[in-house]
Amino acid sequence: MLFVLLSRQLAAQYSVSANDDSNIEWRQIKTGRFQLVYPDFYEANAMRLARVLDTVSTNIGNSLGTSAPKIPILLHTNGSKSNGLLVWAPKRMELWTTPPPEHYAYPWSWQLALHEYRHACQMQALNKGITKWLNAIFGEHIIGAVSGVFIPLWFMEGDAVVAETAMSPTGRGQTPEFKMQFKAQLLEKGVFNINKISLGSRKDFVPSKYVFGYYMSAYSRHLYGKDVFSEVLETTTKGWWKGNWFTKTKTERYDYAQVYQLLTDTLVSYWQSERVAWQSEDTSALSEIGIAKKYYTNYRNPIAIGTDSILALQSSNFDLQSLVILSRGKAEKLRSLPFLNHSHFDYKDGKILYSQLSQNPRWGQQNYSDIIEYDFKNNKYRVITSMAVFFNPVYNPADSTLIAAIQTDSNDNQSLVILSPNGKFFKTKKLLYKNKSQYIASVSTNANIAFAFPCWNEEGTMLYVIETSEQGKCIASYDIASMDRKQITDNSFDDISRLKIHDGRLYFIRDVKGKYELVSTDLSGQNARLETNTEYGIENFSFFVGDCEPSQQDLFVSTYNSDGYRVVKTKPLAKSMSLSEKNPEQIFVSSLREQENFMLDADCVASCGKSFKSESYSKTTHLFNFHSWAPIYLNISKIDFGIGVSFFSQNLLSTSVVQFGYKYNPFDVKHELYLDYTYSGLYPIIDIETSYKKRSLVLEEPSDTLNAQWDELMSGIKIAFPYSWSTQRSVNSVKLNFDYSVRSLVHHQVEDKSSNMQILDRFSTFGAALSLNFLSAMCLNDIAPRFGEVVRLNYKTTLTSDPADYFSALSTTYLPFFFRNQSLQLNLSYSCNSPQKYYFPSEISFTKGIYGLYPEEFYGFSLSLHTPICYPDVQWGRFMYCKRVSMAPFFEVGSFDGNIQHSFGTDMSFNVHLLRITVPLEIGFRVGYLPEFGKLFFNFLFNLEL
Fold it and tell me: Number of folded domains in the chain?
């Protein structure tokens, strides 16, 4: 079992990233600690980030007892994604540098540097003992496999959040969002068992691995000291083969289940005292909009659109993010909007305005964030911008044709912009350019500022916006005529978001004593008031307007509890407060900062007087990077796993991947030596393959049975032309493939010499394939798409005087069934082959339970129903934790050269974690019946969720 888990975890380590635009020229900065690779147009920002990385690298690994490893770092700057990635096969760090509008009061790239570099130090700390020897023998994937099997993911992410909190003036451990999730769960739902809290649930909301991991990591350091994980990692790396799996320090046992119990006792006591103190204050009187919830559901961004109707965004594990109207205790679904960004939209006159993620047709790293207008009364969409990155669009209250938004370019320079269909609106043309029918002009000028959540004043002449810099966050105003800027609030590391102006006052969400609450000031930033005081905090708000309510002072608030964000009605408290009053540090934060004794702030970075030399990064000379080998067969591109030996090379840009080795297959290909090379740095994806196989074929003839065996040497090239796009609710792709191969069949034999069967000796083949995918977006608990169509067409032929031909067609249709998360799958398939000349490997699946048949012509029909049974969240025995049980009953009919075969049965699947390993497995069995043969068949099902 341990070998199987390690083998599957080896497969999980390989990460072939999507590609950047092939037209990008790359540069690099090489130091003794890192190699920073970035697009040539990103030079200035890369230099600034290099100073941050160099400063971080000297301190980031101290409490793990290690120094930062030298590591290549790749920057993706050409899209709307904001994220970081640290992988070890091959070893690299990837940073998506676009600042997100919902980020807390700290530069985005600085937080990435702290968090991802801490991950690098965690992996470096594992490079000891027997793990270090195995790493030297087998390559970089060994450390990744050890971390995946023996190190809980809550530690990996939680310790990184500890680092970003302890080494910065803010950090997620200091933000109210982390606190509210765990606090509400403990005080209202109680203490979940250790498996549920650490491995998650598909039924109930469980705080994320970042939240739970942060509190576990912080409390462990509170109990054992700052070096606890340095010691636990060292004993694990030196003794995992003896059963020391994250369980020992140098001097005592580390039982994280016991630590969890002590942590929850501490937090419950601490937060109950906070509840008592809160109850003694002036609190908001909340009138909940009563929507029945069967499970954890969020209702965000509430906007009153009538006397008894509220527009909101609904989301849960069981359904896609959707626009709904809350009315009379029910939620009426208007439209699924799965790709709407940041849970944010603006509303005016029956239309909503939002930004939506969209794909580049070819380059996965170059994605966009388009501005979309949806008229839900007439069910019409309007795409306002395309192939650019815009966030947080808002209507001008006086002229709905004017839109304000945040735009990000490929240099991560953010601008506060105005969009208008009339270029004459702007007084200057110097800042104008056009996207679709929109003229766009920038109001802001500071390239080192990140912007978020703009709002208009009530006259539509001024814009207010949140600015994030090295000094934290502030609110500033811009006159759209003169472009004059005025700072409204002082810079602070207390988080703020969601600006709105109402009745001559500026309202926004702010961190107030560890909770997100509604605060207001006058339009000059004075006369601050606390407007809400809830137990856990709020996320968004809106006022009653027009004829909705006689009193203009009532407001809707999206406030949090353990069942998710709910919509409530309340009145502003209008309680005076001071924005200059500093928020207290959250529990554990002060001691963590004392332990690390390092702060990455503006002064720290400014003190780095180093200058770095940049140079060109050649794509040609960095094609190959042989990093690992394994005593198993792994094919990353084909997602295949089995018996054999594998060797791997992958370059930093993920455009050049080499896999070679040996594979054993118990079916028609018994033994295979293979070499696969994929180059995806051009628009067409080029695959070059060479293999030497031992193949066999059993052919049923009317008079006798023919058994053929041969060795096959094949060299081929395949060129693929992919094209992808997304709509409001679906992800679609088209791929056209052409392939050419040369094949040599040696030492072949046919047992029945009298047969007319002839196997070609040496020949070439040509093939073409077309695949079409139109698939609806899926929520967490969907097993298969609810709507979709997949079409596969394949044609192959030998380039000989008497050619052997192969053709196959497959159509897969997905339709929703009666209940939630159910999907009906209908397959229609056809293939024709040439077994008397050369039998091409089939591109479609035959009827379940039928093996060893090689038909010349096949027709297939199958119908299956993917359906969840239950979400037990139960521990089975000592080693298995089950989160979902599902089944897929099936009925299939196949015609094998006119011989009809039926098959029916069911697949039973269990979504489980073994030995508390974080990566879930889908295991199960298939049981079916073949009526023509009068026998049952049984298969074991196994899949790794990546």
Answer: 1
Asked if residue 52 is part of any domain, the answer here is yes
Closest CA to 928 of 910, 909, 902: 902
DSSP annotation of 98 reads P
Give the span between the Cα atoms of 763 and 733, in whole angstroms: 33
Give the DSSP per-residue string, 147-179.
Answer: HHHHS-HHHHHHHHHHHHHHTSSS-GGGSHHHH
- Residue 570 maps to a domain: no
The more confidently predicted of residues 2 and 483 is: 483
Measure the CA–CA gap between 566 and 505, rounded to whole angstroms. 25
User: Which residue(s) pair with 381 in the sheet?
Assistant: 374
In this structure, the strands spanning 91-97 and 71-76 are parallel
The CATH number of the domain holding residue 32 is 1.10.390
Average pLDDT over residues 143-169: 93
Rounded-to-5 percentages of helix, strand, coil across the chain: 20, 45, 35
Cα–Cα distance measured from residue 26 to residue 72, given in angstroms and rounded to the nearest whole number: 14
**Res 755 pLDDT > 60:** no
Residues recorded for the chain: 946
Integer Cα distance of 541 and 300 in angstroms: 9
Residue 108 lies in a domain: yes
Mean pLDDT over all residues of the chain?
A: 91
Q: 93 is in which domain, residue-wise?
A: 26-278
The three-class DSSP label of residue 188 is helix
State the Cα–Cα distance between residues 2 and 693, nearest whole angstrom. Answer: 30
**Residue among 763, 862, 772, 770 nearest 805 (CA):** 763
**105: in domain:** yes
E strands of 651-684, at which residues? 656-664, 669-679
Q: What is the pLDDT of residue 7?
A: 46
Phi first, then psi: what are they for 62, rounded to 5°? -60, -50
pLDDT tens, position by position, 425-472: 776 555 667 888 888 888 887 778 999 999 999 999 999 999 999 999
The Cβ of residue 584 has, within 10 Å, a number of other Cβ atoms equal to 11
Confirm if 346 and 395 have CB atoms less than 8 A apart.
yes
Cβ-in-10-Å burial (0-12, 13-18, 19+) of 429 comes to exposed
Other residues' Cβ atoms within 10 Å of the Cβ of residue 668: 17
